[in-house]
Amino acid sequence: MSLIHSTALIDPAAEIGPGVSVGPYAVIGPQVRLGARTSVGAHCVIEGDTRIGEDCRIFQFCSLGAVPQDKKYAGEPTRLTIGARNTIREFCTFNLGTAQDRGETTIGDDNWIMAYVHIAHDCVVGNQTILANSAQLAGHVQVGDWAIVGGLSGVHQFTHIGAHVMAGFGSHIAQDVPPFMLVDGHPLAVRGLNVEGLRRRGFSAERIALLKLAYRVLYREGHTLAQALAQIDELAGTHPESEADLTLLSEFLRSATRGIVR
Question: Strand, helix or coil at 230?
């Protein structure tokens, strides 16, 4: 049974799943789809072609699915897709995609998104991430699984943040951040491997040891990026227990488009 407050304005064309709750004065547009058991707080506005999965908690005063803050946008049909079991706190703003990119802003599953977070057009946010209060993602940003972006951090457009990254409070992120790294500051600097985060996610001592070695190759031994990549590839080939981790790192380095933070 859906629990809809009498003052909520829900377009008859919207698709509302079973067990959905919508708080006072919320506005739900005609192209919106809300998955089962999702809750929408008071005064939220959800518009555009926005699809939200099951068991999400959307707190009061959020704006989801508004047109992108891009002067080139001319009303093209684009989308916002949000997965399942996401927590979205107060005053968050997530925009639709643009025709100049993939046409979709995508947020995965099980993310913890705190108050005042902005996710701009065409961003891709993975699963199990944490975006702390007032983290701001410009257009076309990608954030890998399990990454953490500290409060009051800004991420430049087109920047990629790898899986398992920890970016500290107030970070200015304008270059790609390789997976597994701990970064902070303005200018941004790599402080080490995100060892504590990896331990909490069940990485074995052997996997962490190999990633520490890859970190030293990349950041502490004075190699060029090409030289570091060759050594990381060699490590991956000789240590099967860490091959997937090292391959993830090397593939990210090869695909970096804004240069990596070093």
Answer: helix
Question: What one-letter code names the amino acid at 255?
Answer: S
Among 70, 101, 122, 245, the active-site one is: 122
**By CB neighbour count within 10 A (0-12 exposed, 13-18 middle, 19+ buried), where does 257 fall?**
exposed
Strand runs labelled E in 108-226? 112-113, 118-119, 124-125, 130-131, 136-137, 142-143, 148-149, 154-155, 160-161, 166-167, 172-173, 181-184, 189-193
79-80-83 Cα angle (round to 5): 135
Amino acid at 223: H
Per DSSP, 113 falls in state: E
Q: What 3-state DSSP class applies to 58?
A: strand
From 29, 41, 49, 121, active-site residue: 121
CB 68 within 8 A of CB 86: no
194: three-class secondary structure by DSSP: coil
User: Is 223 annotated as catalytic?
Assistant: no
Residue 139 annotated to the active site: yes
Q: Are 32 and 46 in contact (CB under 8 A)?
A: yes
- What pLDDT sits at residue 2? 65
Which of the residues 23, 126, 139, 162 is marked catalytic? 139
Give mean pLDDT in consecutive 10-residue pieces for the chain, a chain of 262 residues.
90 97 98 98 98 98 98 98 99 98 98 99 98 98 98 98 98 98 96 98 96 98 97 92 96 96 94
Q: What's the one-letter identity of residue 152?
A: L
Q: Active site includes 118?
A: no
pTM of the model: 0.97
With beta carbons less than 8 A apart as the criterion, state whether 232 and 218 touch.
yes
CA distance 243 to 249: 10
